[in-house]
Specification:
Elements lengths: L1 H18 L7 H13 L8 H28 L4 H16 L7 H16 L4 H38 L1
């Protein structure tokens, strides 16, 4: 049974790392499930505090990933129109995956740009706010990757011990 749990856990860890780049796949939560599966093997023990804390971190990273493009738009001078445009673009990317995973880059960027233009901003300011959306997306991706890689490190470390 341990072999099955370790194999499924390794698949979840690997899928979690891939999910750091593919917005449709929840990277850190999948990696966390890999740790949880490893916990149920006969030779590995994680404390309940560790499992709980890593679970909360995975959940917060996933939620933060949806918020960072909006925060980036605001930080780079975006108005409410740009922020709402970025939100609408993100929702559009989720429900209409026209460009696949790239849609999570393209649609919030375009949404922020159009939202800024609708507020009578010039193209330069609108582009700056849209750039903030892009930077926010990249920041979220990096955070998810770091967390998923850390969970992979915990997984491998426990297998070697």
């Amino acid at each position: 049974m341990d072999i099955v749990l370790i194999s499924l856990g390794a698949i979840c860890i690997f899928a979690g790392i891939i999910g750091s780049f593919v917005p449709i796949i929840p990277g850190p939560p999948l990696s966390w499930i890999g740790l949880l599966l490893l916990q149920y093997t006969s030779n590995v023990y994680f404390s309940p505090l560790f499992i709980g804390a890593t679970g909360v971190i995975a959940l917060l990273a996933t939620l933060l990933d949806y918020y960072l493009p909006v925060l980036g738009t605001k930080k780079y001078g975006g108005s409410k129109g740009g922020i709402w445009g970025a939100i609408m673009g993100l929702l559009f990317a989720i429900f209409f995956p026209i460009f696949g995973p790239l849609g999570f880059l393209i649609w919030p960027f375009l949404g922020a740009f159009v939202g800024e233009l609708s507020q009578q901003k010039n193209q330069k300011n609108a582009l700056r706010a849209a750039w903030g959306s892009f930077i926010g997306f990249l920041a979220g991706t990096l955070i998810k990757l770091i967390i998923s890689m850390a969970y992979a490190g915990f997984f491998i470390q426990q297998l070697w011990d």
